[in-house]
């Protein structure tokens, strides 16, 4: 007879019986958008209404995998929901490979959300947190404070405001600080911000810059990169408007600046990430649970380890914490997006779990949740009170 784990029967496998998608609204206070309508910035007194979704994958064992996701990430679900019904929920690798192929013309959007929900099922089945299934051990995760973009509204509205906020984050315990700077390729302002922050807290915090692909030209990226060199920045991320995907351009940039590059947030799955590294087009790899799932990011992390590189997780969340807890070659948890004028961009729909400015301990660290699966409890009273749509696949 197969051996059980923490009392779970190994004879019966959880079979997927249905999928639910619950769309809901939430409100961000004191937020607006910048010049092109995309980047979130501080705007006192303004509110933004946004929508998100919770994916639930049900099984015949009474175990449900749950994952907070975005509407874009579940937009392809009608294409492969029928494939999932009747599948063994523990066969994550087979499901990952089949769906990866099926969505190859859709940038594989939708693969990640289902994968995380399946990991939630597996860890609940074995009555363990996900990081234990990954072979990890609980440890503090150092955080960097990741800012919103620059504004003209009294928030992060000047290089000095960024420096003041960096110092406030240092005093709160954060060991590192990442600037999301100025839209519109405002190179002089970007450079002034780099120097203001570097001269205020450099040597006391690790500093990063993420222009979020806003710089117009290669020359802009070189100028900004050289300013990062002057202040000894920890990394430069996604500098200019190739969208973060040109291997040739970033290899050339690496030849001209000293600051390490962090790329691959905008390429999907294992192979393009490895190609980026082998092309000498990045120094750090970016791992994104939202796009590649836990299965995909573990593949990336092991590939990076084989090349002697580090992988850095994109964005906060329970899945990111479990992954970081299970990896050697990673450095910082991204806590964001933060701003001195409001509570940040995190959606408050968990009970007993939160990300945000004050989620860190006095050393600027967080920990992976300890309960089975993702180890978090969704606030279904809030979700149901704000539900805008509900879809069931059976």
What does this protein look like?
This protein is α/β, with parallel strands linked by helices and 394 residues long. The protein folds into two domains: 16-127 and 374-393, Enolase-like, N-terminal domain (Enolase-like, domain 1, 2-Layer Sandwich); 132-366, TIM Barrel (Alpha-Beta Barrel), CATH 3.20.20.120. 33% of the residues lie in helices and 23% in strands. The chain contains twelve helices and 15 strands. The strands form three sheets. Strands 4, 5, 6, 7, 8, 9, 10, 11 and 13 form a nine-stranded mixed β-sheet that branches. The protein has a four-stranded antiparallel β-sheet with strand order 3-2-1-15.
Q: What fraction, in percent, of the residue positions are helical?
A: 25-40%
Q: What is the CA-atom radius of gyration, in angstroms?
A: 21 Å
Mean pLDDT over all positions: 96
CATH level 1 class label of the largest domain:
Alpha Beta
Class by alpha and beta content = alpha/beta
End-to-end separation in angstroms reads 32 Å
- Total domain count: 2
Considering the protein shown, what is the CATH homologous superfamily of the largest domain? Enolase-like C-terminal domain
Quaternary state, please?
A: single chain
Number of helices: 12
**Number of beta strands:** 15
Would you identify the regions where 5 or more consecutive residues have pLDDT less than 50? Answer: 1-9
Beta-strand proportion: 15-25%
The CATH topology assignment of the largest domain is: TIM Barrel
